[in-house]
Amino acid sequence: MTRDKSNFITLNYYDGNTVRFGNEAPCLIKGKGFIKLTEKILCDNSYYDEGLNYNLLSLSQLNNLHCKVEFENKIAKIYNTDAKLIRKGDQTRGNLFYLDIEDATCLIIEFNDV
Length: 114
Hints:
The chain has one helix at residues 59-64, and strands at 8-13, 18-20, 26-28, 31-36, 42-48, 55-58, 68-72, 75-79, 85-91, 97-101, 104-109. The protein has a 6-stranded mixed β-sheet with strand order 6-11-10-9-8-7. Strands 1-4-5 form a 3-stranded antiparallel β-sheet, with no helix packed on it. The protein has 1 helix and 11 strands, in the order E-E-E-E-E-E-H-E-E-E-E-E. It is mostly beta strands.
């Protein structure tokens, strides 16, 4: 999920469902499309949500892309299908993992589809 429209390769607008986070305030999903994470990895069904403060990356989407994600010693590591490390990030005090994906900030969370 992202609030930045420029992250999308394709974006289909709609007024759809909402998602809720820790504060229980609803955030309206305004669209869905493809986001390019690396040269070889596209994340489909990514949500556009103007109300986000950070970009959020779904572990289930990474799993669907056949990426491997490891968590150890407060570090998350993402590997591609060739077992090459493509990204890693540090755990924050809020139990999120901060990643820097080509100058775009993302946080990894465990997210169930709405």
